[in-house]
């Protein structure tokens, strides 16, 4: 039998209090807070929005690290949330080509300024996406006609409704993966050579969207363009490539575009030397790399019934040569609605995009910024400090019994 030693608990108080005072502030990405278990101040949120807006402004100049920052940030928010929004990206995945400059700048901004605010990296990427959506939508409002940047009018008349931005909420509580910001996890991205059933499998079955919401989400292709070195495709969907409106649908339904599927060959490309298939407008000259406007199979499948083979080539020759010879898709009526009504599309897009940037979480797990929470300036105790103070209090109560 060993002798036990009794230690006066009061003697432990100085050590416990020191731990409370000098414990790390905030929650690091490795500490893995539970979804929703976070409080973010409105002041920290405002600072984050301002910082992202400044990043966008800084990268709008020619020669900036991020080409078309609005499109890149919206694309980044999608790529982070495929599977689940987790603040991790596998930059070795070919589907993420072209995102590295934007991802690096967003990570630098987050690590330098917002890591201790309660905002996770996944939250920050989602916030950046919302800011970019708002900015790109407002840019479209500044265009002649106030939205509908398809440039060539579709068969239905354009509406004259006031131009607004999509109404989106910025919520917090997403959980970063253990190795954030990087991962080796391989996520399967939508295959651009595939058909409507594949699109629905990714977004309807994978994220719980309705078919209408999937069609609305695809309107994000009003932003950005394809490049041989990144996607292996060539050209914009609905120029200008930095504004977000219903131009994607306007281009898609425009009979004057006389869409036809063409083969792209970029043998000099280190990542996409294989043949690629995309739909081009009649004025395109792929050989001279003057693409006009383009659509992917997955885009065209929203309006026309696609029957591509395993490589992406449309198997119905008449359809392949002129989209006017293709049968209508089951979602064609929705595309026509959006082509005719920019405001209706933005309302539906906002709902679909909100689902996207909350993928992997229930509504109750994500919270809005709080006006009653003080900004985290690095002086308030973090979760460890609070825990040690609670222990010290319990020890003192025990000792005085």
Radius of gyration from the alpha-carbon trace, in angstroms: 25 Å
What structural class do you assign from the helix and strand content?
mainly alpha
Distance between the termini: 29 Å
Number of strands: 7
**Helix content bin:** 25-40%
| Total of helices | 13
Query: How many strands, what sense, and barrel or not for the largest sheet?
Result: 3 strands, antiparallel
Oligomer: single chain
Query: Would you identify the regions where 5 or more consecutive residues have pLDDT less than 50?
Result: 16-33, 146-159, 379-400
Shape: globular
- DSSP strand (E) fraction? under 5%
Q: Output the helix-strand order.
A: HHHHHEHHEEHEEEHHHHEH
Provide mean pLDDT, rounded: 84
- Strand order, largest beta sheet: 4-5-6
Structure summary:
The chain is mostly helical and 401 residues long.
Can you put this structure into words, describing what you see?
It is built from 13 helices and 7 strands. It is mostly helical. A 3-stranded antiparallel sheet has the order 4-5-6. Helix 1 packs antiparallel against helix 13, helix 3 crosses helix 5 and helix 8 (247-253) packs across helix 11. It is globular. The model is unreliable at 16-33, 146-159 and 379-400 (pLDDT under 50).
Features:
single chain, 401 residues, mainly alpha, 3-stranded antiparallel β-sheet, 7 strands, disordered C terminus
Task: Please specify the SSE layout and strand pairing.
Elements: H1 13-22, H2 42-58, H3 69-81, H4 100-113, H5 121-141, E1 171-172, H6 196-207, H7 211-217, E2 225-226, E3 235-236, H8 247-253, E4 260-264, E5 276-280, E6 294-295, H9 297-300, H10 317-321, H11 332-340, H12 342-357, E7 367-368, H13 383-399
Antiparallel strand pairs: 1-7, 2-3, 4-5, 5-6
């Amino acid at each position: 039998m060993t002798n036990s030693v009794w230690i006066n608990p009061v003697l432990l108080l100085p050590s416990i209090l020191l731990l409370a005072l000098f414990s790390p502030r905030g929650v690091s990405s490795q500490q893995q807070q539970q979804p929703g278990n976070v409080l973010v101040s409105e002041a920290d949120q405002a600072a984050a929005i301002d910082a992202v807006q400044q990043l966008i402004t800084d990268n709008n100049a020619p020669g900036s690290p991020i080409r078309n920052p609005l499109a890149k940030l919206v694309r980044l928010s999608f790529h982070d949330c495929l599977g689940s929004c987790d603040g991790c990206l596998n930059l070795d995945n070919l589907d993420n080509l072209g995102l590295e400059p934007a991802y690096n700048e967003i990570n630098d901004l987050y690590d330098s300024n917002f890591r201790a605010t309660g905002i996770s990296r996944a939250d920050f990427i989602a916030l950046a996406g919302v800011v970019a959506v708002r900015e790109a939508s407002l840019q479209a409002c500044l265009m002649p006609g106030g939205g509908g940047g398809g440039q060539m009018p579709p068969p239905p008349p354009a509406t004259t409704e006031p131009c607004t931005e999509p109404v989106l909420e910025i919520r917090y509580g997403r959980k970063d993966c253990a190795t954030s910001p990087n991962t080796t996890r391989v996520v399967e991205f939508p295959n651009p050579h595939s058909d409507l059933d594949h699109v629905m499998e990714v977004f309807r079955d994978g994220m719980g969207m309705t078919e209408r919401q999937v069609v609305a989400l695809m309107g994000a292709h009003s932003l950005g363009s394809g490049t041989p070195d990144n996607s292996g495709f060539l050209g914009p969907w609905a120029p200008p490539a930095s504004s977000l409106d219903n131009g994607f649908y306007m281009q898609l339904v425009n009979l004057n575009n006389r869409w036809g599927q063409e083969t792209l060959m970029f043998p000099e490309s280190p990542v996409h030397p294989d043949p690629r298939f995309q739909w081009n407008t009649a004025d395109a000259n792929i050989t001279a790399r003057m693409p006009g406007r383009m659509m992917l199979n997955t885009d065209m499948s929203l309006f026309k019934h696609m029957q591509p083979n395993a490589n992406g080539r449309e198997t119905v020759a008449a359809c392949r040569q002129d989209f006017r010879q293709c049968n209508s898709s089951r979602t064609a009526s929705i595309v026509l609605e959006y082509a005719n009504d920019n405001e209706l599309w933005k309302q539906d897009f906002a709902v679909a995009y909100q689902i996207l940037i909350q993928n992997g979480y229930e509504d109750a797990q994500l919270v809005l910024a709080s006006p009653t929470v003080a900004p985290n300036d690095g002086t308030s105790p973090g979760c460890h400090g609070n825990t040690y103070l609670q222990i010290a209090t319990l020890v003192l109560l025990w000792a005085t019994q």
